[in-house]
């Protein structure tokens, strides 16, 4: 092979001629090359330059796609009569163009800047084709209610294909979608997805953008769905000004069935009706299973019911397995009891870095409670930070795992636990200083062990810092339980926490005497009232007043006790 110059660059034509169509197809479609950064893949583009993208692979794939387009044949939808003026119905032109491109294993293109009015485009059983759609696929206005529901672009039983770019406009405003409306009955908008993948396999996706979806931007289903790689997925629902996020649509991504599915970056802005999910959802239905899903980065700005759901009503933990997400960033602005991160019926879920910003009514993390209270096994949170919520973490039917959590600005509980076993909690946090104190009824508990009925806490360990000066003066109790039978319900647990500053009567409330270990620290600086330090005091400095027989601390101006009263 003749090199063009002294470095390792080789011309496009020589490389492609030497490699041949089959070899290039292998590079594009082989299992070893993914748009999400998973293992070894393409590390140089066809000119020998290092790829430059968020995951190290996408620009290389895109360059190769461009080369294939140039060298090995492509067609444009305009050759089949597509107009792209946003007024003419181009649906049949797209059906004809897709049939021709797929049957002849070509690349099908659209023109940048064009808007194509289309719906109900279905590709069935095709293989080895490529799409580069830089124009916008827009749903027509006022589509009639039908059953089954139409999707904008649907692939059934397709394999070994590349979709390098897709842009959708779901046109929800002009299809009877409105905030607070009856969303999934008369017009069945919940099911009108932009991109629907059924029983698809060995497919690679570059950039998928969905604006104003009526249903999901991407919906994935089918027992024979596997080996799908997505680089960038963006969903957005905006008001008529084109900028302000508005709560409409269902999810940016829904995975109802499939395995070995990877996403590099998923961003969801506003997508999700206020009474429905929103953002990213793994939710198999009866008889469906999802396993081995990896997401590198997930960002959700949502006003909907949930921003991230890994949940099912079926299977007792067997229908969702092996889910890993690197970084999660969730923000929700609705002052209502919304569950922002929901996990039920899943096994072996690993969330590395999670940040959640909610409101004073948010249920930030909901585990094993929603739906039919399906169990959660082997759950791992390496780092979970919650900023503003009603409840930080609520957990029921949770067995095995760990959580490192900081809950700031809670208005009720940092942790609220029902049935939990074999789990380690490292917890820090604070209460919203605007929360009423004292509450009626009393409810500002750092850790609430809700042991009503037959609930149990078994083989659990609690570490962390819940000092009174950290959690704030509105904290009414540190650890409390309503267990009717502590010996039977709270067993073999360890509490190794810093509870500095809590009065003894408020430190522990309820039956905790049957735990395995209680190691609750308090300030080791103590003395009489007359011996209180006076020099170089820092705000939050703790002191145990033996005259008063209770902890106090310095608030920057005065000594105060656990109620906030100046002492």
Automatic annotation (TrEMBL):
<keyword id="KW-0964">Secreted</keyword>
<dbReference type="InterPro" id="IPR012334">
    <property type="entry name" value="Pectin_lyas_fold"/>
</dbReference>
<protein>
    <recommendedName>
        <fullName>Pectate lyase superfamily protein domain-containing protein</fullName>
    </recommendedName>
</protein>
<dbReference type="GO" id="GO:0005576">
    <property type="term" value="C:extracellular region"/>
</dbReference>
<dbReference type="InterPro" id="IPR006311">
    <property type="entry name" value="TAT_signal"/>
</dbReference>
<dbReference type="InterPro" id="IPR011050">
    <property type="entry name" value="Pectin_lyase_fold/virulence"/>
</dbReference>
């Amino acid at each position: 092979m003749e090199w063009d110059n002294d470095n390792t660059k080789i011309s496009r034509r020589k490389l492609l001629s030497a490699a041949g169509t089959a070899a290039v197809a292998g590079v594009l479609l082989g299992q070893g090359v993914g748009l999400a950064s998973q293992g070894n893949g393409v590390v140089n583009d066809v000119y020998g330059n290092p790829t430059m993208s968020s995951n190290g692979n996408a620009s290389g794939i895109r360059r190769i796609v461009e080369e294939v387009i140039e060298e090995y044949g492509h067609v444009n939808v305009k050759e089949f009569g597509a107009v792209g003026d946003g007024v003419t119905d181009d649906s049949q032109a797209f059906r004809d163009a897709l049939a021709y491109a797929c049957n002849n294993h070509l690349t099908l293109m659209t023109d940048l800047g064009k808007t194509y009015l289309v719906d109900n485009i279905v590709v069935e059983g095709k293989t080895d084709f490529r799409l580069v759609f830089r124009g916008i696929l827009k749903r027509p206005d006022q589509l009639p209610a039908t059953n089954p529901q139409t999707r904008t672009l649907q692939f059934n039983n397709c394999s070994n294909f590349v979709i390098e770019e897709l842009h959708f406009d779901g046109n929800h405003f002009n299809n009877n979608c409105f905030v607070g409306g009856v969303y999934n009955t008369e017009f069945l908008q919940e099911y009108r997805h932009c991109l629907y993948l059924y029983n698809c396999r060995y497919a690679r996706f570059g950039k998928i953008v969905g604006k104003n979806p009526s249903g999901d931007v991407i919906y994935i289903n089918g027992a024979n769905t596997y080996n799908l790689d997505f680089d960038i997925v963006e969903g957005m629902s905006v008001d008529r000004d084109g900028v302000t996020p508005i709560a409409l649509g269902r999810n940016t991504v829904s995975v109802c069935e499939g395995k070995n599915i990877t996403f590099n970056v998923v961003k969801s802005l506003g997508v999700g009706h206020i009474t429905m999910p929103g953002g990213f959802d793994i939710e198999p239905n009866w008889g469906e299973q999802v396993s081995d899903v990896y997401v590198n980065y997930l960002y959700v700005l949502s006003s909907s019911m949930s921003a991230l759901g890994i949940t099912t009503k079926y299977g007792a933990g067997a229908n969702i397995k092996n889910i890993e997400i690197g970084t999660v960033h969730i923000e929700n602005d609705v002052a209502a009891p919304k569950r922002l991160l929901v996990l039920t019926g899943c096994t072996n879920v690993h969330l590395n870095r999670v940040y959640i910003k909610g409101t004073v009514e948010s249920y930030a993390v909901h585990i094993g409670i929603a739906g039919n209270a399906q169990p959660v096994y082997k759950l791992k949170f390496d780092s979970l930070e919650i900023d503003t919520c009603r409840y930080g973490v609520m957990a029921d039917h949770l067995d095995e795992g760990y959580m490192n959590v900081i809950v700031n600005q809670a208005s009720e509980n940092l942790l609220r636990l029902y049935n939990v076993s074999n789990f380690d909690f490292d917890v820090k946090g604070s209460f919203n200083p605007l929360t009423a104190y004292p509450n009626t009824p009393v409810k500002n508990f750092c850790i609430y062990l809700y042991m009503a009925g037959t609930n149990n806490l078994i083989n659990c360990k609690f570490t962390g810092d819940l000092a009174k000066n950290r959690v704030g003066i509105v904290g009414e109790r540190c650890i409390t339980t309503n267990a009717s039978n502590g010996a039977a319900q709270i067993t073999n647990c360890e509490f190794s926490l810093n509870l500095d500053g809590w009065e003894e009567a408020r430190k522990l409330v309820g039956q905790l005497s049957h735990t395995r270990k209680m190691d609750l620290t308090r300030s080791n600086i103590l003395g009489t009232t007359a011996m209180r330090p006076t020099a170089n005091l820092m705000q939050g400095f703790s002191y145990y007043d033996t005259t008063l027989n209770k902890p106090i601390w310095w608030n920057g101006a005065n000594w105060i006790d656990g109620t906030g009263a100046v002492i």
